[in-house]
Amino acid sequence: MPIHSRLLLAAFFLFALASACSGAPTNGGETFDATATAAPTPALTAGDKWSLWTGGTQLRGANIYQRRVFPELDGREFLGPGPFGPPYSQEDFDRLAALGANYVNLSVPGLFTVEPPYALDQEAQANLDRLLALAANADLFAVITFRTGPGRSEFAIIGDLDDKDDWLPDEYIVHAVWQEPEAQDAWVEMWRYTAARYADNPIVVGYDLMCEPNSNALFDVWDPGEFAARYGGTTYDWNQLYPRLVAAIRAVDPLTPILIGGNGYSAPAWLAAMDPLDEDRIVYTFHQYEPHRYTHQQASFTYYYPYPGEFDADYDGELERVDRAWLADLLDPARLTPSGRPGATLAVNEYGLVRYAPFAADFLRDEMQLFEQHGWNYAVWQWYPAWEPLAEGDNAFNLRFGPDPQRLYEVALEDNDLLQTLTAFWSQNRLRPSNFGSP
Across-strand partners of 27? Predict the structure, then answer.
């Protein structure tokens, strides 16, 4: 997810630490049609959760993000009083639904503790139950995505593994899940327990096994082939762990779709390196933040990466023309299909960019049209709560604030082309739990 960007995350963390001590979007003035490249929507079988993931885009929404609050790092305001933050209210979910979204990807702590003996975390369970209740009240479908669990802490995702001493104490970064079989066994049990608990929940339409697996980051290896040659078959190999998680879920829940992203923080390039499963109801997912230089650029009035534009998009020392054609090539399903699995079901359960990126609305429009063209479900990063202390320290991806980096409040829809772009696509949603039926 974008918060693992080193510079942006450090800025958010330092802020928290300091506090502790109406028209359609346009492209060049020309109105665009969000449905222009959408795949046709087939008739659906009421109540069949799998039908939401196949045969055309059915789910368009946003990510809800929470992590455990550490008062000694975060204070009592930045992320709220805890135990998890930032705080979300019913109004936050209702506003998302009112703008047209029909699902939330709940990117939250797992139900088992990070540290041994890897027991049920009652606070995490109560928190997830509450978020699901808020989503149900707002008539939103939900996917459960676990960020943490036995042997994996939040800061193992968003911390800088190479240079953590600069801003974060070592003890907050836990990545034992990639080293200890006991932690992996406990992760398996966590998903077995979770699936048994939520199998009959009518709004839960997917289990996302792990947010951004990243064992490769421990070795600074970013080529999937190189990583497989060196660490394939070891505990560091995500391809040997996720089949066990799937089997545990299927032992208690044969129907709920299972979402699996690749290693490398679920970047598109790592999806094809996944070993496909001979299982039904599997969705292979990726997180679309390419090109990172554009989507994560710093707010600056002296130099920026434009869209469309020419810059070194893939860090190879050569200039590339980054435009819709570049995105179309990146998002070619043939590039993204797990090896030996043509026609695999795909989804984009994270995408987004800093709100002040030049022509950000055009970039969003182009990639969402491509998502629609391929029939993929997708969830933008991030739907922020109306929690005022968060606005000053974490707002780069809050598209409701508009493109001006100095503006720290929501901009009216008619004056915000970023939000207009999202709602133009969300307006295509037709299905909600209330008119879909129980599985």
Answer: 30
User: Would you say residue 49 lies in a domain?
Assistant: no
CA-nearest of 158, 289, 269 to 221 is 269
| Average pLDDT of the residues in 425-437 | 94
Rounded Cα gap, residues 151 and 285, in angstroms: 23
Task: Give 338's pLDDT tier (boundaries 50, 70, 90).
Answer: confident
**Residue 141 three-state SS:** strand
d(CA 403, CA 398): 9
Judged by DSSP in three states, 62 sits in strand
Instruction: Give the pLDDT band of residue 162 (cuts 50, 70, 90).
Output: low
Query: Six-digit token pair at 311?
Result: 């810059």
CB 255 within 8 A of CB 207: no
Q: How many domains does the chain have?
A: 1
| Of the candidates 77, 121, 86, the residue with the CA atom closest to the CA atom of residue 107 | 86
Residue 327 falls inside a structural domain: yes
Which domain, by its residues, includes 389? 2-22+59-434
Q: Give the span between the Cα atoms of 213 and 236, in whole angstroms.
A: 10
SS3 158: helix
Q: Are strands 103-108 and 141-146 parallel, antiparallel or unpaired?
A: parallel
Residue 237 lies in a domain: yes
Residues 82-93 as b/e (b if ≥16 CB within 10 A, e otherwise) read ebbbbbbeeebb
- Strand runs (DSSP E) across 323-390, as ranges? 346-351, 377-380
User: What is the predicted pLDDT for the residue at 217?
Assistant: 96
Would residue 173 count as lying in a domain?
Answer: yes
Task: Give 426's Cβ-side CA count (13 Å radius).
Answer: 23
| Burial of 277 from C-beta contacts in 10 A (0-12 / 13-18 / 19+) | middle
- The domain that holds 193 is classified in CATH as 3.20.20.80
Cα angle value 198/202/203 (rounded, 5°): 90
For residue 17, give Cα distances in angstroms to 54, 155, 201, 371: 44, 15, 38, 38
Amino acid code (one letter) for 290? E
Calpha distance 372→38 (Å, rounded): 4
| Cis? peptide before 308, omega within 30° of 0 | yes
> pTM for this one?
0.90
> How many Å is the Cα radius of gyration of the chain?
20
User: pLDDT value at position 119?
Assistant: 98
Rounded-to-integer distance, Cα 366 and Cα 59, Å: 18
- The token duo for 22 is 């109406």
- The type of residue at 43 is A
Q: Report DSSP letters for 18-53, one per residue.
A: HHH--PPPEETTEE--TTTTPPPPPP--TT-GGGGS
Residues 6+ apart with CB under 8 A from 150: 110, 112, 113, 114, 116, 118, 177, 182, 183, 184, 186, 187, 190
Task: Tell me which amino acid residue 315 is.
Answer: Y
Instruction: Tell me the average pLDDT across 314-318.
Output: 93
